[in-house]
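Run log // design_07
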């Protein structure tokens, strides 16, 4: 047989096979796409639900999702198990209800349902100034400062000379509620309230309650950036450090056990001047201070 004819027939078979393969792929995809996709019906919010809301039957509906039920969702048959549980995060209409967005069964709603296990809500009395002009709203982060006169001020002359002292006792504390309002304000509008509830550990709650119960101690909240979660050791300050310009700076010196203690540096020695009078001429010479190296 002619070699040229064999080549033409071979190319024809290759082209026909490629066309058949393409037609098979296209038709196969259309057939698969035309098949009904399995769906699952899950429970969703029938309306917008605010934090602290206790779920009722009218707050729930069902929606269909493709494939199986996502992790943490509730099936239609589980709808009855949601009644009476509190919402600990805002839910929007049509949003699937997840188990981690609800308080445990039997805990109810309101502020108590938003407190994580092992934490406590501690109330702090504030005013317009202490409350950062009303901008301490739910969801904000604050530092807690305590100012007053130490109990041993009358016994120690050095402490008494320093006057009123202030210390940062807590850092990066979340605000649970401003007054009776536990809703976060998306616009950040100020809210004038008398009491702010803070989310603290049991140990922090003891410290905060002890400071609040002392009439001579004033509690102040300092607003911080929610993204700034870093906590640093703060030395604190006293009234003497504010008004005494010659007060010696405080530095931290570790001892042999590795414990950092505050050591007051020696005051900076002042230079002295000598006036030289030569006839009608008068000049002033400045000399550096002589440091005392005695220990």
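design_07 sequence
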């Amino acid at each position: 047989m002619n070699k040229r004819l064999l080549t033409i027939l071979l190319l024809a078979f290759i082209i026909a096979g490629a066309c058949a393969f393409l037609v098979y792929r296209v038709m196969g995809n259309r057939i698969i796409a035309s098949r009904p996709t399995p769906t699952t019906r899950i429970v969703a919010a029938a309306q917008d639900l605010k934090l602290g809301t206790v779920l009722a039957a009218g707050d729930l509906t069902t929606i269909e999702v493709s494939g199986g039920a996502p992790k943490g969702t509730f099936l239609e048959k589980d709808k009855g198990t949601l009644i009476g549980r509190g919402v600990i995060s805002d839910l929007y209409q049509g949003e699937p209800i997840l188990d981690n967005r609800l308080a445990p069964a039997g805990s109810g709603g309101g502020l108590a349902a938003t407190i994580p296990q092992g934490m406590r809500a501690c109330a702090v009395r504030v005013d317009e100034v202490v409350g950062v002009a009303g901008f301490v709203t739910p969801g904000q982060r604050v530092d807690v400062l305590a100012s007053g006169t130490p109990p041993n001020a009358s016994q120690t002359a050095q402490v008494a000379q320093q006057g009123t002292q202030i210390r940062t006792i807590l850092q990066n504390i979340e605000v649970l509620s401003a007054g009776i309002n536990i809703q976060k304000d998306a616009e950040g509008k100020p809210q004038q309230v008398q009491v702010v509830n803070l989310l603290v550990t049991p140990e922090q709650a003891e410290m905060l309650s002890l400071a609040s119960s002392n009439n001579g101690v004033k509690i102040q909240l300092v607003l911080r950036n929610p993204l700034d979660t870093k906590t640093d050791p703060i030395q604190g300050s006293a009234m003497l450090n504010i008004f005494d310009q010659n007060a010696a700076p405080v530095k931290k010196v570790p001892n042999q056990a590795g414990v950092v203690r505050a050591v007051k540096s020696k005051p900076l020695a002042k230079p002295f001047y000598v006036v030289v009078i030569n006839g009608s001429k008068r000049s002033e010479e400045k000399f550096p201070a002589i440091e005392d190296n005695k220990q």
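The longest strand covers residues 165-178.
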